[in-house]
Design goal:
The chain is mainly alpha-helical. Helix content is 68%, strand content 0%. Keywords: Transferase. InterPro entries: Glutathione-S-Trfase_C_sf.
Length: 88
């Protein structure tokens, strides 16, 4: 996954969105990756997520931040608990 994200990062350098100034097909296809990364890497410094969320049709159709954050925390805790079991 990290390699794939590096490829995507390379494609957006110098652009507001993958397609240029407006979100396109690829922006929409990777939205969930970026949206989840928004929670796990809030301080990542990627402007793409900020630009993506400023588009009304996108921003108005995503779940509220607080709902996603609480869901993310549950998944994170479950993941960490599975890692602890595997270590034992």
């Amino acid at each position: 996954m990290a390699k794939g994200l590096e490829i995507l990062k390379g494609e957006i350098i110098g652009k507001k969105f993958f397609g240029g100034d407006a979100p396109g097909y690829l922006d929409i296809m990777v939205r969930w990756i970026a949206y989840w990364l928004h929670f796990s890497q809030q301080a990542g410094g990627y402007n793409w997520m900020k630009n993506f969320l400023q588009v009304d049709i996108i921003n108005n159709n995503l779940p509220p931040f607080e709902v996603m954050m609480s869901t993310y925390k549950i998944y994170r805790e479950l993941s960490l608990s599975f890692l602890k079991v595997e270590e034992e």
